[in-house]
Structure formats: structure tokens, C-alpha cells
Specification:
globular; six-stranded mixed beta sheet; 535 residues
Length: 535
Amino acid sequence: MQCRTPNNPTIASRGATGYQERSFMRSASIFQSYDTGQSHILNRVTFRNCSSNPKQKFFLNQMLTHSDQFTPDSMIITKNFVFESSGDASSAERLGVTINASFPTVSHRMQNWGDADGSLSGRGVPTALGSSRQGWWWRLDKACVNRMDWTMWVCDDLPGRGSGMIYFLINATLQNTPLLGTQVCSNGNYLSVPCPTLGRVWHLGHTPAEGMDLPLNAKLSGPTGGFGWVVGGAQWRAPVTLNLTNPQAPSGTKQMLVLPYPPRSKFYITAISQNSQGFLQTQSVLPNSCYVLDKAGKRLADNMCAWNFSAVKSVAEVRNGLGDTYFFDESTNHLYLNFFPISSYSTVGVPNISTLGVRGLGRVWGPPDPGFSGWTQGGVSLPPRGVNVIRIITDCGSGGLDSTGLYCDTFAGNGGTLPSSPCSPGVSLPLDSFDSCGFSGSTGTTGTGGTGSGSDGSSGGGANGVKGAVGIIGIVLGCLAVLFCGLFALRCWCLSKRMSLQPSKPLRSLSQNKLPLQRSASQQFRVANILTSAQ
């Protein structure tokens, strides 16, 4: 991409002959990412003669940040950028935003950018960029640098780290058009149209203070591969029915989600296929059309619309399971489950049914599929987007319903109680890393290190967990070395003592001294009495 010739720009006054012929406009964006639902992979791009000057301002890459209605998921990754006579790594020209409001818009808070080889940031190593406008949501570890001119955290993108998205659908009236975009969470009128806050979201191992506001337009994008996403805070109210839609996560992975509920809550959790969207609206029994036909119209399989999750007895079982389990921690009143995208295909009669059939032919549910990938180009990939929905229905336990029937009564913020730490006792919060119980490292190097493992069955996340294991092995070997040296010194002392007591006997040389899943079955709970009242 050549922005301009080497000649000095000449800008005539507006209306003069040749105004557009003699120069670019006074400012320009070379590449501008869209704000939602896109997939951008840029590879082998050279920017030439794109440096700003007193008469022209260039943004080589720019993000749309004006909207509270339309927000990004994980949709852009770049590689092999070359800058010739263009903004250097210290320059704001390489990355910019359209709007940098005094209070960050929803689209600004959710911005993220994959720098696959560090050529955009100038770091030379895989780099994850995420909005720094609010909290530590995109700050992956303490070595991250806040580039305030880019309004982005700049972090090492270690193996196991990624990005994804989930949408929290609670109030179908407020969270859809025509109200959404006009009366709440507008597309650009952020100064005059409010976008209310539902609560806070933060990483398991952090606290709400390090988190980010979760807006009414609750399309939540964030880094994956850590201990988990926690939703809560003083404003959060436990929904009677929560639909988690449009899941996105790296291929073959799942993302932990942690939600507070009233004490003694019971749950009915179901994975639902895209073809049963009517089921989302009516909350009634599954439609009769939930079966698959082959091309000849022959009926192949039934019960294709939903797959029930089952309860287990620990966070570790959820984290290490196939993805269709949940756990309610009664000590802190938090629900743990996973979300991930499920692939689909079209058949005659019933479109978009999952091809994964590990528990029956073509069922709607299947474990994370490494073969289900998003768009791949030039050796890099964007995470896939699923068509499945996870529905959580609760009886509200000791609470009951509020007057609207949408939320559990007298329950807000869980009384400030946080979920249990994913790390061993004694590890203080907030953690230095979103995916490791111990962290050491410096930014701008080929990686960072983590030590330790989680108390809930987690490995510390990606490469950090591996490096943590290496650190533990090193400690063990060091202790063995100290023990060996101690024994050697004790032997020498004994020989010396023996020689002093019996000087007439010769001391032997030291070389002459020979030193000796079946998974536990769980009864599924169906909250039949609230299927109609939870509308």
C-alpha cells in the first residue's frame, strides 16, 4: 500500500482547481476494521510512504469505536506487516480508533486485535492487543504494556491463549430492536442515549475492581485460555432464564463461565440447536420437527433440538470434562459451566444440526471439535462462531422470582461473595496473570513464564502451565542436589572423625566407599414448574 508519492503534498484551498487531484484529504485511514460480525485476516502487507506530516494525518490501521449497539467479537488478525517510510513501532500511526470518548463506548471496550508475529506492534513475537479503556479485562499478565496512544494493552500471546465471545440474552424486549439502538445502546449517539450496565465481568482469580462493565447489549468479547470469566458485581441480578448465544472460542477449546445464584438453587441447563429458535421464544416443549431427514426424505434420528447438561461434584470435573456438565458451589453460591461453538450442516427438512454424534447420530451436542475452525489464511486462523445456544433455567433456590418474572427476587451482587480462587491457599488476589497461579517474565521477549497449578484442576493455562511444571521440576531437582551435597559432606565429616580417632589405620579413598473417567452418574433436575412462568 503506497499512501502517497515522495513529493511534498500541496493542498490548495477548498474549491480551488485540482484540490482532489493534487493531494489526499487531510487525514486518512488505510485499513479500517468493521465493528461487528466480520472476519479480517491481513497477511503480507507493506505500507509505503504513509508517515504523517504537518499537512496530512494517517492512521494505518483503525478500529470503529463509536457504537454501543454494534460491537466486535474476535474478528481480526494480522501478519507480515512491513512499514517503509511509515509510522515506526513507537508511533500512534500504526493503530488508532475512530472515537476516543471520555467514557468508553461498548465497542471500544470490546476491541481486540491479533498480531500473529508481532510485526504490527514491532515486538517481533506473537502479540495480543486488547482495549485498555476499562480495567484489566484485556490485560493478560503483569508484563503487559498499556499503549495509551493505541488505547490497547500489548501482551505476549502465548500458546493456549486466544479470544472469543458469548452473548447474554436475558430480556428479549430491551436487548433487541426496535428499543436496542434507539432508546438504549445506540449506534453512535453515546452521549445522549444511555447503555445501562447489567453488572461486572472479570477473570477468575481477579476481583470486580479489575474487571469491566457488562452492558445491557451484553455481547461480551474477551481473552480465552484463562481460569474463567466471572459475571457478578453489585448491579448483577440472577436471571431466571439466561440464554447464552453465538458462542465463539478457538478450535477445540471451551471457555469456563462463572455465575452467582441464590443459595440452594437448582438448574436445568440445555444445549439447543439453531433450528429450534422457536423454542427460545416459547420456552415450551421441543417442537415435533426435531429430527433429521436424509436426501430421500427418510427419517434418520430424533431428539435433535436439545441436549441436557448433567451436574457434577467439583469445578475440576467441569473444567476437565467434555463440556456438557455443570457444578454449583454451595460454599460461595456460584455456578460453573463451559461454552464453546458447535459446528453445523444443512439437511433436508431441518437445517443446521450438529454433525458431532458422539452420543447418538447427529445430535445437537458434541465436545469441542479441533476440526471446527474459523477462517484460516496464511497460517493463521480466526476462532469459529457457533450456531448453538446454552439455556440456563433456575428455580432461584431460597429466593423466588421478582415481580417481572425475569430475575430471582432479593438477590443482587451475591452479597459481595467472590468465587473460590483457582489457585492454592496463600496465593493472594488479584493474580499477576489471568491464566497462571504464579508469573514471571518481561514484555517484548519471546515469552513469559508461569509457575504453579490451579486448585480446581486447571493447569495454569497454556504455556504458563507447562512452564509452571518445569519450574516445579527444577525446584525438586534443586532439593535433591542439596540433599546429595549434605550427605556427601556428612560422609566426609565421618571419615575425618574416624581418622582422628584411629590415626594408625589408613583412610580408604572415597572411590572405595559404596553408598548404598468413568464419569459419575448424576440425576438431571428439570424445573418443569417454571418453564411457563419464566417467559
